[in-house]
């Protein structure tokens, strides 16, 4: 049985949720690290509930933080094994939250940072029905030892995908964004991308604005400029 997870939440500004945005934090952080973005995005997505679950495991390298799976950087296959092992827990959480609201995946967006991006892409691309959107900051599409994406179910339509990365990222180099975009294209999943000039392993204001507008467009929400 998958471990139960939960985390901080921000309710829909309108009081009536029509979308669900789930934030997946990075290695050594927790849900509190990203939920503030949900508060910032309420004006762009007034009908969205935002949730940032804490990953299921305590982080060995940062005891106050959490991890979706261990990372030693010594084993080339650990990311692949990690996303596979953590996926059932995330799937169960998403299923539960969608069921509570009477939503299907077309009302769902996954937003990840770093290790959370690995989870968002891996899990989102393997659900029976694709989420509306996947937004990945400073991460990478984890590929298996065999044909990339070969075990994926057919998703029609595929999710909208935006990858955002810092040009000066020294933890997951920006080349990872382009490799991920190319691999997604090979899977017939077109991806947009944005490179933040001068940024390291993080999220800047330009990336936040790009992300908010991307999600609004994916959900068909009209953004009135100057009235945020």
Keywords:
seven-stranded mixed β-sheet; alpha/beta; 228 residues; 5 helices
Detailed description of the structure:
- The mean pLDDT is 93.
- This protein is 30% helix and 20% strand.
- It starts with 8 loop residues before the first strand and ends in a 9-residue tail after the last helix.
- It is built from five helices and nine strands.
- Helix 2 crosses helix 3.
- With 228 residues, it is an alpha/beta fold.
- The strands form two sheets. It has a seven-stranded mixed beta sheet, with helices on both faces. Strands 4-5 form a two-stranded antiparallel ribbon.
- Strand 6, helix 3 and strand 7 form a beta-alpha-beta unit.
How much of the sequence lies in strands comes to 15-25%
How far is the first residue's CA from the last residue's CA? 43 Å
Range of helix content = 25-40%
Strand order in space, largest sheet: 1-3-2-6-7-8-9
* Shape category: globular
Could you describe the largest sheet, including whether it forms a barrel? 7 strands, mixed
According to DSSP, the number of beta strands is 9
Computed Rg: 16 Å
Uncertain regions: pLDDT < 50 for 5+ in a row? Answer: none
User: What is the string of helix and strand elements?
Assistant: EEHEEEHEHEEHEH
User: What is the number of helices?
Assistant: 5
Instruction: Calculate the mean pLDDT score and round it.
Output: 93
User: Structural class of the secondary elements?
Assistant: alpha/beta
Brief synopsis:
With 228 residues, the protein is an alpha/beta fold. The protein contains 5 helices and 9 strands, in the order ββαβββαβαββαβα.
